[in-house]
Design brief:
Length: 464
């Protein structure tokens, strides 16, 4: 007989699955009792090599030109509904959630150093510090580190990613807890899998866990015990959670599922968790990130795709390419595609991964909505607006509205640097912090070139 909905956890004795299942069951119990809070989650996807503004604009839309200032932003705020617009080619995988998408243009980050990569500055909105050029100095916390303090979890912060060098296991490239305290990004999916989900086991059982490909095989008895005692609605939700975790069983390459790639040139591999192919490993990391969010292991996830000065010229061989991003950034062509088409193809692959993550979160009920309703995914490049960036603009794509607190389904282009109404990336980061419940009104370092501007507060234009 199923348990009463408000008594879900009473009498449960979990074995190997204690750490993994407890957050899920606690959430279901609170929901059944009508006491559920809406957890907030933030995901950052940081890709290398710049994100040009024209690649973020809706199809056929031409940004309003103005005078001789660098680049081509507007002199007044542009706020355009996406309802009747077609997302650009790279962002098209987000079309099913277009009403929850906000394309944000025109924010500057001039306080950062620019160059091939701004490293920690991209998420930190601070200056270059020691040295010159593409400094890797960590002068302060980054926004994902700040949100991790605001929204603690079993893993307060989870950093995943891919490096161009297979020998790398952990990178310290874009995230920081505080000054001189960088946060790690695990760049080997098999090691990240063991670190995240091996924690359900202890002692000799850890060896058994490591030997199994499927996480759920290890905790099968716990899962059966829980399912037999759950009421109908909670059993259905648990099934959705477990289905997401079960995707970790699929360790094979998914290149044949990728759209708009040069499949005839793409290598075929047998295990994406240990693959030499960058697209395989990134696919695996998105699976791991989704599973960690669903299991309640973390509320703040950052996925770094070749970000940081040491990896910015990564080559995506899984998309049929033989030349790296540095070549593309300098206008190089390949496979009868120019730099614009090549960078769009690579970016589209990233948004296919983001769409896959969004689909998983949107399929899982949470309160009277879904997990996606309580999640914000932010895409940006650590190279700001170009291959050799100067940080005049920093295009970003935001998916999610945190239970309606963000006005979405819009293309928002802020006035250009120096024009009335201009805002910075720090203002967006303050917006995210306030969505997470913080009362902060500033973040990072103020831009000395904008002394006459109020650089405090959130982007009120984005708030509902």
């Amino acid at each position: 007989m199923s348990l009463a909905r408000r008594d879900l956890l009473k009498g449960f004795s979990l074995g190997a699955g204690t750490l993994l299942l407890q957050p899920i069951l606690s959430r279901l119990t609170a929901q059944a009792a009508g006491l559920a809070t809406r957890p907030k989650r933030f995901v950052f996807v940081v890709e290398s090599n710049g994100f040009t503004p024209q690649q973020g604009a809706p199809e056929g839309y031409k940004r309003k030109a103005r005078d001789q200032r660098p680049l081509g932003g507007p002199s007044e705020l542009v706020d355009l509904s996406l309802a009747d617009q077609t997302l650009p080619m790279a962002l098209a995988p987000l079309t099913p959630w277009k009403d929850k998408v906000t394309i944000v243009q025109g924010l500057s980050g001039k306080v950062c150093s620019g160059g091939h990569s701004t490293n920690f500055q991209a998420l930190g909105a601070f200056g270059q510090g020691r040295g010159s050029g593409e400094s890797t100095a960590v002068l302060s916390e980054t926004i994902d580190g700040a949100l991790a303090k605001q929204l603690p979890g079993i893993f307060p912060f989870l950093g995943l990613g891919v490096s161009k060098r297979l020998e790398n296991s952990v990178l310290y490239n874009v995230s920081a807890w505080a000054a001189d305290k960088p946060l790690p990004h695990m760049v080997k999916p098999d090691q990240a899998y063991a670190a995240l989900f091996g924690s359900v086991a202890g002692g000799m059982a850890k060896q058994e866990f490591t030997a199994k490909n499927n996480l759920l095989d290890f905790i099968r008895e716990d899962v059966r015990r829980v399912e037999n005692k759950l009421a109908g609605p909670e059993r259905e939700q648990l099934g959705a959670y477990l289905e997401t975790l079960d995707t970790l069983r699929d360790r094979q390459s998914r290149l044949n599922e990728i759209e708009h790639t040069l499949r005839e040139h793409a290598p075929v591999t047998s295990d994406k968790y240990t693959s030499a192919v960058e697209t395989d490993r990134l696919d695996a990391q998105f699976d791991l990130g989704a599973a960690a969010l669903v299991a309640g292991l973390t509320n703040v996830l950052t996925i770094s795709s070749g970000a940081g000065i040491r990896d910015f010229d990564i080559c995506f061989t899984g998309l049929g390419l033989k030349k790296g991003k540095h070549h593309i950034g300098h206008g190089g062509s390949e496979n009868d595609m120019d730099w614009f088409a090549l960078s769009n193809m690579i970016r589209r692959f990233h948004f296919e991964q983001i769409a896959k993550l969004a689909k998983k979160l949107d399929a899982i009920k949470e309160g009277d909505g879904t997990m996606l309703d309580n999640t914000v995914i932010i895409y940006l490049s650590d190279g700001a607006e170009s291959h050799h960036s100067r940080c005049w603009e920093w295009p970003m794509v935001v998916l999610g509205n945190i239970d309606g607190k963000l006005k979405t389904g819009r293309y928002v282009d802020y006035p250009a640097y120096g024009y009335k109404g201009h805002r910075t990336t720090a203002n967006l980061f303050v917006t995210l912090l306030q969505l997470a419940g913080s009362s902060r009104t500033s973040f990072g370092q103020a831009d000395p070139g904008l002394k006459e501007f109020d650089q405090h507060g959130p982007l009120t234009e984005l708030l509902a």
